[in-house]
Amino acid sequence: MSAVLAAAVSLSMIVVVFAAVPEATAGECNGTAHAPILITSDAGFTAANGVISGTGTPSDPYLIANLAIDDMSLGYALKVDNAAGTITKSFDVTCVSSNWKVSTPSGGVVVWIVDVHTPTTVSRVLSNSGELPNSTGIRLEGSNHILLNDDSFNKLGGDGIQILGSDHVTVVDTKSKAANNGLYIQDSHDIIVGQTCSVGGGQGCDEFTYDDNHGLSIQDSYNVQVIDTMTSADDSGGILLSGTGTYNVTMTGGEATANGPICHSGTPSGHVSDTITGIAVTDGAYDITVHGYTMQANGDGGGGYFDLMNGGKGLYLNPCGGLVTLPKTPTGGANLDFRGNCFTYAYGFDPAPTPYCPTS
């Protein structure tokens, strides 16, 4: 049985339309055991490399699907690398999983896409590494016109998803729990995260939760839209917007939670930072608009944590030993619009935004 997966993406007056993509059924997502796959040219799109259908045209892309790749000894399960410019065919990926039965100390990536510039959908990538160091779910490098849809990661030791030097990427209906960041965006632009959904109910919502560093970290990236997304950190902060290259970021209707570090066997877990908060704007990030968010951090706004921060306070609450003085993280830049959000404690704003918490 097949279905049609289509997405129309619009941001900053630019529209990208993804071709219809035949999906494997849920049962087929159990996958067939396979060795690691590396594709570096059109000749690599073969049945031996997991292609189950398609002719490689934009309207009928190759479909790589139904793979269970637990051998991560090469640093990846599936890597499509167009660094040499020898991939001209269209392709999509669905139903790829890895449980990291064979791994290396340097970690790896389940699905790794490099320098791909044709509309591509990567859906239903699944992985649980048991928090092996540097284990990552999906990495996009220097690529564009990519849709990440219905992917799910649990207990990864690195980032759930990395978007690096890429543009025109959409992430929808995806869930990630990782020892570092749920979703990490760096040096990228024209990114959409999330879609209209029932926040709290979870159906169709992006969830980047129980991450040790941040649920969502945006570094030196611009034209980013975040919609109805749930973010939290098990041991640190919910969302970090950082760097003078971060601007024109709009976030609406989501949740951002910081639980703060815990003392585990005498050692604090999580990210040592003076910005453990629901949402932090730091290091010159500017033109940031956040409306309709609920922000919460475990603390009293004093020596503890704040729900919302502009820059850092210069203090870290070590759960194993009390307050620690840190270099104060610089504030964000101009045009920080935080009207219409629900929170209790804010720090670093002048004037401070007014909380708005609807009663119904």
Describe the structure concisely for a colleague.
With 360 residues, the chain is an all-beta fold.
Describe this structure in words.
By secondary structure, the protein is mainly beta. It has one domain. Helix content is 0%, strand content 50%. The protein has an 18-stranded mixed beta sheet that branches.
Count of domain modules: 1
**Low-confidence segments, ≥5 residues, pLDDT <50?**
1-27
Count the strands? Answer: 35
Question: How large is the count of helical segments?
Answer: 0
Give the C-alpha Rg.
Answer: 20 Å
Our estimate of the beta-strand percent is over 45%
Instruction: Report mean pLDDT, rounded to a whole number.
Output: 89
What is the global morphology?
A: globular
Termini gap: 43 Å
What share of residues is helical? under 10%
Category by helix and strand content: mainly beta
Q: How would you sum up the major sheet?
A: 18 strands, mixed
